[in-house]
Structure formats: structure tokens, C-alpha cells
Amino acid sequence: MAHSEPVFLLLQASSAAHLSRHNPKMRLKALSLQSEAFSAVRSDIEKLQGPSESFVSDELMLCTIIAGLTSAWYDVNDLGLSHILGSQVLLYLWLQQQKNRLKYQQTFILGAFVYWFMISAFVAGEPKGCLEYQESLQMAIRSLEMSHDIVDDTDVPKRLRRIIPHPLTGFSIILLNSVGKVGALCRIRQNETIQRPGESLPDFLMAKARLVESELLEHTHSSRSNFTDPQDPQTTIDEILSVEEAYRCAGLLQLYTAFPHLLQRQAFHTFHGEADALEPESLREDKECKRLNSVGEFTPPQYNWLRALAFHILQILETVPATSGTRVLQGLAVLIAAAWLVDPMSVGFSSWEGESREALLEHSQLPLKKSSATKEQWRDIIRFGLRTHVEYVGLQQVSRVLEIVEVIWRLDDLGGKKCDWMAVVALQGLQTLFG
Q: What is its main location (predicted)?
């Protein structure tokens, strides 16, 4: 990559913004450097206006990504919306220029863009437009041939090629693109609920939700043998693969939370009284699912399985050391799982035990680890982990995640309808980039 003054200034500015948490005097320096960098970027963009100047350099593309990803470092409430909108046009032009296989540097840039759009999809931009863009981006990614190794491996057979882990997307750009689509779909669902309360969701929305569910369920798990060890003692291949699986499961948890009717196809068993035996069980379950889903609630089997999935995600992340380089990427997955640290939902009583029983659900494509920990124990683990991470990383977004989960837990403990963390974040103005 050629020397780029805007990239150099943005890196300096973001470093100063990072330091400003513990040294407030650095904030003015950070803003000054950021302003200087933006002026240089605008100058480069203005050159694209002419008919003969439409070349978007790798350096300019990287600038827009750095600016967007670090916007919340200066102000935790800044979602970088202006950068998101502008970068979409630049990425289109940039991809149009790529005629051959992407070099490693370009693969890195595209991966960083996908990661940024994934975390922003949960909070920023018009959701329908965001989803459409994510879909077109997915098509573009699938049509590209990319180099995942620093060395030129063009002459190496595909089966022998090795992948160097991407610092932001790990091993799968496609997976994080699918998780980003979950964020957009959930916000569209929120809008539909507000605009048409009590009505069934549009068919197109359910169809897109099923498609994303399939993408996440059918995602091919990576094998360690395909990868080149990053030679980072604090970031192993196993840790990167664990975070990849946690994000896949977190995407499904968030999708099923917004569209619980998707779980209806799974086999579940509930405990019914003798009076219910006259009606076929499958018909009863179907009617109850549709009734509850229309008002954004869950059947007991759905509720308890989603809770178990959250515990499953946290068990995966618990295996990753606190010093791992992947910790900075875990914010969104932790938030999605932590929002489901609730008590189980009981249904009826067992006539022979006299004890409350939990409804059970089995997902044929997603077996879960069992956890003996209680919601209180997991909450304490989350609190300790996030507080440690605040000291370790020093970014305001981590403190914001802790603030959000405390609000969600307090609301859920009041009883009643399960709290939707995305709705609470929007209503209380707690949006930030969770990454």
C-alpha cells in the first residue's frame, strides 16, 4: 500500500481518541487530527467527480472504513452514519475496478468493510435499504475470487491454499455478512410491529428471515488444517474459530428472537393437561405459535430453548482467554446472549411430581451444550468480563454494552413480556457500534 496522508492522520486521530478515555486532554488532539484527515479525504473524493477521475484507491477505501469503525471512539453515540452512506458508493466503484482475483490487501479491506457493516446494521441507517445493500454485497462477495494469503498463491491449487486469519472477520466474510442481515431484518420487524401492531408479518419479511436462517444453519464450519497460524501467542486459531461459532449462534439467537415462528418447524414436546388431549397436539402448537408470534411473545418451548442457546453461546466464549485478541470483537455476540439471561418459563404442573415443569424443544440442526450455571451466575460472569474488558481495551462502547445489559436484566426481572434489547436501545438512545 502506498503512503497515504489521510490514513496516517486517521490512525493518529483514532489512537489519540483511544487514549482520551484516561487522558481527557488528548480528546482535543484527536478531534484536530480527525478534522485534518477528513479534509484530506474530502479532497480525494472531490477528484472522483470528474468524468476521467473515477478511480477509487485502496487507501481511500480504507480511510472510509477506519473513519466509520472508529467514529464511536470520539463520541460513544456517534454511529458514523455519514460514513456508511458515502462508503456504499465508494465500495461500488472500488469493486467495479477489480477485474482479477483480489490481492490479500484488497481482501483485507473488503473484510473490514463487511465487519463494519455487520455491527452498524443493528443500529444505523434505514433498515430496508441496509438489508438490500447487504444482499447485493453478499452477491458481490460470492462472485469474487480472493487471496487470503500475503504471499502470491495464484499458482497453488485451491485445495492446498492456506488462509491467514482476518483481524476482524476471522475466517468467514460470508458468515458476518449473514449476521449483518439479521440486524437489518430485526429492525424492519420492529418498524412493522410499530406501524401495524397485532398484524401478521409480511410474507416477504418471513421469506427473507427463513433464507438468512438457512445461511446460518448451513454455514460450513472451518477446519483448523486450512489455516496459517497467525503466530500471535495471544490469538490462536482455536480462539478465532470459537468466536466464529459464537457469532453464528448469536445471529440465530437474534433472528429467532425476532421471528420465533421459525422455530415452529422444530420438534418440541410440551406438557398438557387431560382436557387438551382432545385436540391434536401439532394443531394446538401451531395455533399457539401463531397467536403468540403475532404479538411478539414466545411459547414456553421457544422461550426456554432461546435461553439455552444464550447459555450455549456464553459457554463457547468462556473458553476464550481474557487476554485474547478476539476479545475486542465479541461485544455484539455477548450483548445478544446476555439479553437472554432470564429464568426459565414453566408450563403447568406435573400431576405425579407436583412440581413445575419446563417445556422442551429440540433443534435438529443446532444441538446445545448444557449449562448448570444459573442466570445470576452468568450475569456475574458477564459483569466481571465486561468490567475487565473496559480496563483492558479502554473504549466507551464496552461500558455501553454493560449499561445496556443491566437495563435489560432489570426490566426482565420485573416480569411480563420478554424485553427486546434492540427496542430498548432505540427507545433510550443507547445506540453505539458494538465492536
A: nucleus
- What pLDDT digit, counting tens, does each position of 399-408 carry? 999 999 999 9
- For the whole model, what pTM was predicted? 0.88
Q: Give me the residue label for grid cell 408450563.
A: 347
Q: Considering only CA atoms, which of 109, 103, 100, 115 is closest in space to residue 63?
A: 109
Contacts of 171 (CB under 8 A, 6+ apart): 163, 165, 222, 226, 227, 240, 241, 244
3-state secondary structure of 343: coil
* Cell representation of residue 242: 470459537
Closest Cα partner for 90 from 120, 107, 110?
Answer: 110
Quick check: 268 and 246 in contact, CB under 8 A?
A: no
Please, are residues 320 and 327 in contact by the beta-carbon 8 Å criterion? yes
Q: Which of 413, 302, 403 lies closest to 362 in space, CA to CA?
A: 302
> Who's near 57: CB < 8 A, 6+ residues apart?
2, 4, 44
| 350: helix, strand or coil | coil
What is residue 163's DSSP assignment? B
Cell numbers at residue 56, please? 477509487
Other residues' Cβ atoms within 10 Å of the Cβ of residue 361: 20
Q: Provide the residue ranges of all domains of the chain, joining segments of one domain with +.
A: 1-97, 98-428
Q: Helix axis angle, 203-217 relative to 173-195, nearest 10°?
A: 150
pLDDT tens-place string over residues 324-341? 888 888 999 999 999 999
For residues 86 and 69, give the distance between their C-alpha atoms in angstroms, rounded to a whole number: 14
Q: Which residues are paired to 349 by β-bridges?
A: 356
CA distance 301 to 345: 8
